[in-house]
Model the fold of this input.
Amino acid sequence: MHRSAYLFLLITTLLWGGNSVAGKLAVDHISPMTLVFLRWVLAVLIMLPIGWRTLREDWPVVRRHWLILAALGAGGFTLFNAIFYTALNYTTAINVSIEQAAMPILIIVANFIFFRLRVNWAQIVGVVLTIAGVILTACHGDPRRLLTLELNFGDAIMLIAVILYSGYSVGLRVKPAMRWQSLMLALSIAALVTSLPFFLWEIAAGKVIVPDARGWAVTIYTAIGASIVSQIFYIRGNELIGANRAGLFINLVPIFGTLLSVLIVGETFHLYQALALVLVLGGISLAEYNGRKMTI
Done:
């Protein structure tokens, strides 16, 4: 069971790492809120033929739990991405990477507060190792760069995004029991509806960049890879091993994003990136080994 969860979560974080590269490739080819809106338009169009029949059959469940589904779709799918793209207009990718490393900690704390789920010291050490790997990646192997970081409006709203996605991860624990096709379609529709105001604001502000060929390619990737496939796998990974253990894999996102930048964008691979990967994978392995022992 846990091996399947590892595969799902590794693919998820790889696809999310690719989303970081897609964001770089999207600059000047499609505007941020347009990208957020169009990715969910495409996601809904793709999911409709897959999930419409099961959604109709699961409609009584959806109707009873529509508020939970709307909150999960809005918080985890739309608001996180809208704030993430906005934050990058005010702060650096270094700050954002470090701030996202707080997600596993917030997930653990929230699970303890609301569900009294405990962790052991080995799992805490694993979390610290993964965060060290993220920070090493973010500061490009030079910890002295951390001393030059300045917090600003972008960092403040990015912390809101971190809280939202942590809440989404914990909230998956209380999602209604329904088939994955129905769940993904319902969440995608919620994301589409809540992304519309951001798109309309971008139009009103005159900041829309109509996608060109590259913009559409990025949109298609984010809709299929970073939205549908990754979210289905992340939800399944959460079901199999729980939010505490699954959330730790999130710290692989900046690592995979960096490695994919080397392969796709042509950036240079450095020794610190290899060390960061070892730290993150080592931290996950340590936490997972002890997490499995606690569930046996």
